[in-house]
Write a structure and sequence with these properties.
Elements lengths: L3 E3 L1 H13 L5 E8 L12 E10 L7 H16 L2 E9 L14 H10 L4 E5 L13 E7 L2 E4 L6 E2 L4 H10 L9 H6 L8 H24 L2
Parallel strand pairs: 1-3, 1-8, 4-5
Antiparallel strand pairs: 2-3, 2-4, 5-6, 6-7
């Protein structure tokens, strides 16, 4: 199976979505860098650069989901991105498997169009320990089903992902996250969550500056 890595914003939005609605199941889609994608290839490496929160109420392949996926695909194409997977968190704290996740039809539809699709399951138990370990489990689509990758091996593009997400949670940024349920209730809301992306970029820039200052101390 190809390697899968996540950018900070991609992981952060998954966790913020689950944290905003701890009493609900939530779901969303994963966006990969299209410039690194080989059309039709299976088991290729993926750089998941962003995620789009879908629903905390309507988890099925409904007209609303079709509208959401169409809008997301249109915006993604302008940014050289492609819908490359699906994420979900179960309502029940103890349910942390693909089979228990909502929106299976959405995930299957994505896999039909993108053979190297990824299914990310939020590990509710690890959500309580996010400072120490990633709170997700990665699955790749192969042989007609979702197969778990190494449960303890989640690759991030930045070494500060867990630290950044912890900071966001402490600041209560999850309250500002907008999913498509929120957007459909109020069309003025930004389902791309650009404000959160800008905040993450600012935090990442600060971490980079700190790293450079630390390096100077040891020269």
């Amino acid at each position: 199976m190809g390697e899968v890595s996540l950018e900070t914003a991609a992981y952060a939005k998954i966790i913020l979505h689950a944290a905003k609605y701890p009493h609900c199941a939530v779901n969303g889609v994963l966006l990969a860098d299209a410039t690194k994608i080989r059309d039709g290839a299976k088991n290729q490496d993926l750089d998941i650069v962003d995620t789009v929160p879908l629903f905390h109420h309507s988890h099925y392949l409904s007209p609303m989901a079709e509208i959401a996926l169409t809008q997301i695909e249109t915006v993604a194409q302008t940014d050289n991105r492609v819908i490359a997977g699906y994420y979900a968190a179960c309502e029940n704290f103890k349910d942390n498997t693909v089979e228990k996740c909502p929106g299976q039809k959405i995930a299957e539809k994505i896999a039909e169009h993108f053979p190297s699709a990824v299914f990310v399951v939020v590990d509710n138990k690890r959500m309580m320990q996010h400072l120490d370990t990633p709170a997700i489990k990665l699955h790749k689509y192969a042989d007609g089903r979702w197969k778990l990758k190494d449960a303890n091996r989640v690759m991030f593009q930045s070494p500060y992902v867990l630290e950044t997400v912890s900071h966001l949670l402490q600041r209560g940024v999850q309250k500002d996250l907008v999913d498509f349920d929120n957007y459909l209730d109020d069309l003025s809301q930004d389902w791309t969550n650009l404000g959160i992306e800008k905040l993450i970029a600012s935090i990442n820039a600060s971490n980079t500056i700190d790293c450079k200052e630390d390096d100077k101390l040891f020269r």
